[in-house]
From TrEMBL:
Its cofactor is Zn(2+). It comes from Mola mola (Ocean sunfish). One of its GO terms (molecular function) is metallocarboxypeptidase activity. It comes from the Eukaryota. This is Peptidase M14 domain-containing protein. GO terms for cellular component: extracellular space. The active site is at 362 (proton donor/acceptor).
Length: 410
């Protein structure tokens, strides 16, 4: 029997155990299957609801005859969710504590506008499209000088709604860039040589839904014409071996690929913008959680990218920096070989477009909290991602550009 690795799933045991007991509180379990039958059940549940819904705490009283081996990671997930949503800060200019909390979609839109207003000469707010529910898709452009023919990087966050630490990183990066430009040699060198396009919430409808209705929602909120099920996985909706491996054509699946590549207004807006700027955008970063990985193409095939060894060297160097500074371990490698095969991903699509330095970051943690990473973890998680991003970007500038001034010491 093949070994089946189960990350920290949150299962709906009404499905798994066929129990109808009332939900009093929720738990997060790590489950290890003992039989092939259990492997098949868990594969089916995880395909339909990967890292899916919550487990009734009293379901352990009615486990199936062939018992599962499991570990309770979080005994009361509801309390953790309530703590994540607690927010005493409303002024983005007030203090650093604003960036150490999670924020609603409305708060983030307010922050975007205020950041542009407070930095009119260096920050531009660009509307690139709108979501299925007509929420605006805003990109911040950071441009710290008027150097001609300047290259750029792209960063998107929040493609999967429940990955709150991802969106928190985009805010963290902007603050760090504006606050430490001319003070920190790394970010100064990067911004002297590159503009930055940042999309803090690529999936605004889904993100809003995680705050109002279902904290574990993953997809967007598109209405299907063929099913009562809602949503498309935006990271299966790009034109990179679309809807082949690691994706589903079932609208009820958590990894539903949509009706055709770029069928969703969110993925279409990003793709359209990057096509227009493909000659200047040199680096692509898509920020996700969780599992602590630095990934690069390909995820849609086991074939290696043309510059596989170069991408591997960059990811390895970044992982070593994280290990050195934060004593935390990140796996690295091509997505298909490091995590799993998955078609329709944005990083593979960007690479095929011609952005040869394309990366997906999976931020903290390694499974204890998963998507429910407490706010107290935001600073280190974001600083780890910032370290990786700066390490890779500095190396790319060194490899590809005639920089303005010497690079910072490594």
């Amino acid at each position: 029997m093949k070994t089946f690795l189960v990350f920290s799933f949150m299962f709906n045991f009404n499905t798994l155990l066929r129990t109808t007991e009332c939900i009093e509180t929720d738990q997060v379990l790590s489950i290890t299957p003992k039989t092939q039958e259990q492997v098949d059940i868990l594969k089916n549940v995880s395909t339909q609801r990967p890292y899916g819904n919550l487990l009734p705490s009293n379901s352990s009283k009615r486990r199936p005859r062939s018992t599962y081996s499991f570990l309770v990671l979080l005994p009361n997930a509801n309390e953790l969710i309530e703590m994540q949503m607690r927010n005493d800060s409303s002024d983005p200019r007030g203090s650093t504590t604003f960036y150490e909390r999670y924020h609603t979609l409305d708060d983030i839109y307010f922050w975007l506008n205020r950041t542009q207003q407070d930095n009119p000469s260096t920050v531009k707010l660009i509307l690139i499209g709108s979501s299925s529910e007509k929420q605006p898709l805003y990109v911040l452009k950071l441009s710290l000088n008027d150097r001609p023919n300047k290259k750029a990087m792209w960063i998107d966050c929040g493609i999967h709604a429940r990955e709150w630490i991802s969106t928190a990183f985009c805010l963290w990066f902007v603050r760090h860039s504006l606050l430490f430009y001319s003070q920190n040699p790394d970010i100064t060198h990067i911004l002297d040589n590159m503009d930055v396009y940042i999309l803090p919430v690529m999936n605004p409808d889904g993100y809003k839904y995680t705050w109002t209705t279902n904290r574990m929602w993953r997809k967007n909120r598109a209405v299907s014409k063929s099913s009562s099920c809602i949503g498309v996985d935006l990271n299966r909706n790009f034109d990179a071996e679309w809807c082949t491996v690691g994706a589903s054509d079932d609208p009820c699946s958590e990894i539903y690929c949509g009706t055709f590549p770029e069928s969703e207004p969110e993925s279409q807006a990003v793709a359209k913008f990057l096509r227009r700027h493909k000659d200047s955008v040199q680096l692509y970063f898509s920020v996700h959680s969780y599992s602590q990985m630095l990934l690069f193409p390909y995820s849609c095939t086991l074939d290696e990218a043309d510059n596989h060894n170069e991408l591997l060297e960059l990811a390895q160097h970044a992982a070593q920096k994280i290990r050195r500074f934060y004593r935390n371990t990140y796996k690295y490698g091509a997505g298909a070989k490091t995590i799993y095969l998955a078609s329709g991903g944005s990083d593979d699509w960007a690479y095929n477009l011609g952005i040869k330095y394309s990366f997906t970051f999976e931020l903290q943690d390694s499974g204890r909290y998963g998507f429910l990473l407490p706010p107290s973890y935001i600073p280190q998680a974001c600083n780890e991602a910032l370290t990786a991003l700066k390490t890779i970007t500095l190396k790319v500038i060194e490899k590809t550009q005639a920089p303005t001034g010497p690079p910072p010491a490594d």
